[in-house]
Queue: 4 jobs
Job 1
Amino acid sequence: MHQSFNSRIDQGEERISELETGYLTIHSKKRQREKIIKNKDAHLQDLENSLKRTNLREIGLKEKVQGDEVESLFRGIITEPPKPTKRCQYSGTRKL
């Protein structure tokens, strides 16, 4: 009878050990997922911020501009490159 109690105690300890191992595995995976989510969130925030910085602003454009006026403005910008200034020289050719 003493042996059967020891056997049941051993089985109980094994089950507890298996549960602890499973818990640690699940907890470790949860931490990894949280870290990945945090990194992805930071990366997404960086992308959003970089997109916000590249917005084009046209100074002197009236607030109530009609569609044709905006199109003609941008056609002019695209067809006529900006004139070089002393601060920023544009050579017009690119070396690769």
Job 2
Amino acid sequence: MKKNYINNYLNLFSNLNKENIKKFDDLVVKDIVFIDPFNNIKGLDNFKNIFYHMFDTVEEPKFLNNLFFEKDYFALILIFLNYDLSQLLSNYALSVT
């Protein structure tokens, strides 16, 4: 796999914001299948909608990624999401007794 392509993908995640989500158009195939613990989707627009929704509902999301393995046309990339939970939890009352 081309190192430049992988670096562009990693850089996009490292600097992802609501304005540059559209850059996935140049890096991801249109019939992408994306599965994680919260999503099971197919298609580039559905993939991008995950991130648009995330930026609408999560405060200060930041991706940390690491290229774990690369060989020919295969790459294993670990991507971690850090975010502030205060916005998500603002509608919940916490009671300590």
Job 3
Amino acid sequence: MFPEGTSRTSGCILSEMRKGSAGIWNGLKRNSGKRRREPILEEIEKRITEEYQEWSGSPTELCEFLQTDMKPNALTQKLNVNADRLLQDYGIQYWNKRSHSGRQVGLRLIKRDDA
């Protein structure tokens, strides 16, 4: 998948998708490591607190809980992509499951050891 003599490196992204004259991919660009601000994760952090440690319901109910205009499928897609970040940066676990009765999602504050 990668040209001979190169490897996939953590933090690299393709900045251009064109072949150079030698027939190899050009344009690998090092990612600075800075994370883009995600307002929806910050909104979740405001609502899932020590006083209100857990929430679960349908994706539509989650949109209402977060008071967002996002469509439920777009919100759950964004949370699926950012679930690790939500846990690592905010200490909040996101889960989802699908059953015959419909989709369910949930948020839970996770206690982390500071030691």
Job 4
Amino acid sequence: MFGALLGTLSQSSTTTAQKRRADIEKKRLGKVHERNEELEDEKRRKREQLDTVRRNEQKIWEAQSVNSFSTVNRTVLIRGADTIAT
């Protein structure tokens, strides 16, 4: 009976080595979590920059296509007017 009681008491106490390992593991997990957050922030910034560039390029493309369409329409109208006048 005394042996069982002694075994139970020794199992419940945590050694300093176990506490130290737990602290080290906790710090390591904290660093991993912090690094993951930094990577996510970097991805988000890059995605925002890319979206900005794409929006600007889209505006330029739309402006060029409108100008191109207007030029084609003017050419057709001028040629059409020449044909009617002739």
